[in-house]
Write a structure and sequence with these properties.
Blueprint: H1 2-9, H2 14-29, H3 38-56, H4 62-80, H5 86-96, H6 101-121
Helix pairs in contact: 1-2, 1-6, 2-5, 2-6, 3-4, 3-5, 3-6, 4-5
Length: about 130
């Protein structure tokens, strides 16, 4: 899945790809963790994408913008009960690289595919950590 993600997004979007790599780790190495659940993976990345886009269009200095983005991501994920730590990386990736509709769709499809893979093979997966 990550191979396809790299082919689609290219080398310029490595921050986004690294966030999805972290998601893959959580989903397959800790499949029973709360942050590996479908709702958290998809919801967390949606929150990360939204917060990153909000701050991408502000004109704050980067040393204010980056921490505020993370604070908002953490607050919203906890408030909405969709905690997924790699989504904070997604927010920073969006903030540093403008997200096009192609990137948005690719991130969400990847989140859905990873979540569904975990769901369908969950009886064969064990927590490795």
């Amino acid at each position: 899945m990550l191979f396809v993600l790299v082919l689609i997004l290219g080398k310029e979007r490595m921050l986004v790809i690294s966030a999805m790599g972290s998601t893959a780790f959580i989903v397959f190495a800790m499949p029973r963790a709360a942050s590996a659940q479908t709702r958290n993976v998809i919801g967390g990345h949606l929150v990360g994408l939204a917060c990153g886009m909000i701050f991408f269009y502000t004109s704050l200095p980067y040393f204010v913008e980056y921490p505020l983005t993370i604070v908002l991501v953490i607050f919203l994920m906890v408030a909405l009960d969709v905690e997924h730590p790699p989504a904070a990386g997604t927010a920073l990736a969006v903030l540093t690289n403008e997200v096009t509709p192609n990137v948005f769709v690719t991130i969400m499809i990847t989140a859905v595919v990873l979540s569904q893979c975990r769901y369908f093979v969950r009886k064969y997966l064990k927590d490795l950590v």
